[in-house]
Design a protein that fits this description.
By secondary structure, this protein is an alpha/beta fold. Helix content is 32%, strand content 29%.
């Protein structure tokens, strides 16, 4: 059984269907009301793995996921999935767009549709941000609801019997959200040649060059970073950790060396896994400088052994 950040009808639920289809198994899933709850269930072994959002192309990283993973003990990312994110304005049957006076949705959806809503909702219409897009659809489906419309995905609108009065209202038509499947530690997925490695780095102290120390571990070894975000450690004002996605696999010599270097310059390093890049079939693998290939590392080791007699 999978867990996921619910309820049913969200983009996370839609992404989980994609995961199940790719694995060739049916969708046996349990929704959780928070990201932390879904990840904790995976950590306890209550579910085989949980799917949660980690990054959106418009809004950036999902703070709840990044913070929970940074503080978690014994969780690993084993897979990622990226899906397009499109929203519509859904109402109870019989409601017209010019009758909409109050709209309910999730904060991320509101942010991604802000310009459209500003230009197309009737003057004076209120926008409330709370819960989830699917929860908004469920609330609007209640005839006694104070809300006239929900900004949500098509799957949620149809699930709750609503009517779409405006489709594809996101300000960025190419918006996508990345989700990660997280489980308890086990065998690391094998290297594919187009992988990601995710870590959280905690610097020793706040000193000049602390971030540079971290970045150099990757730059010196020819490793590209696809995402880096600072997050408060929540123990003291001004203390931050860095959540990092690096291009490569822990079985790559360069990545292993970078992680060891990271451990030397940081107070703590949380290894969250190496796993296939979701778009591996659509994009060419990242180019690795000749000096950073596995063969270059092996040649260096052989040279060192030869000249030192070790």
């Amino acid at each position: 059984m999978y867990g996921y950040f619910g309820p049913a009808g969200t983009f996370t639920h839609q992404a989980l269907r994609t995961v199940a289809e790719r694995s060739g198994r049916g969708l046996d899933a349990r929704p959780y009301t928070t990201v932390a709850g879904a990840l904790a269930a995976a950590g306890r072994g209550e579910v085989e793995a949980s799917l949660v959002p980690i990054e959106n192309s418009v809004e950036g990283g999902v703070g709840a996921t990044l913070d929970t993973l940074a503080a978690a003990d014994g969780l690993r990312i084993v897979q990622e999935v990226v899906i397009p994110v499109q929203f519509g304005l859904w109402v109870r049957p019989g409601t017209a767009l010019d009758q909409v006076r109050s709209v309910l949705t999730h904060p991320h959806a509101a942010a991604q549709c802000r310009d459209w809503l500003d230009h197309h909702l009737p003057t004076g219409a209120d926008l409330t941000q709370s819960g989830s897009t699917a929860g908004a659809a469920r609330e609007v489906s209640n005839p006694a609801s104070q809300y006239d419309a929900a900004v949500c995905a098509e799957v949620a609108g149809r699930m709750y019997g609503l009517t779409c009065v405006a489709d594809r209202i996101a300000d960025n038509p190419d918006a996508r959200t990345r989700f990660i499947l997280v489980s308890r530690p086990g065998p690391i997925p094998p290297r594919t040649g187009d992988d990601r490695t995710t870590v959280v780095a905690f610097p020793h102290v706040d000193h000049p060059g602390a971030l540079l120390d971290i970045l150099q571990q990757f730059a010196f070894r020819g490793i590209n970073l696809s995402r880096i975000e600072s997050r408060p450690t929540k123990d003291q004002l001004g203390n931050y950790c860095f959540s990092i996605d690096a291009v490569g696999h822990v079985d790559d010599e360069r990545m292993a060396a970078a992680l060891k270097g990271l451990h030397r310059v940081c107070r703590e390093v949380v290894f969250l896994g190496s796993y296939p890049h979701a778009d591996a079939s659509e994009q060419p693998a990242a180019t690795v400088p000749q000096r950073s290939t596995d063969d270059a590392y092996r040649q260096a080791e052989a040279w060192f052994a030869r000249v030192t007699g070790r």
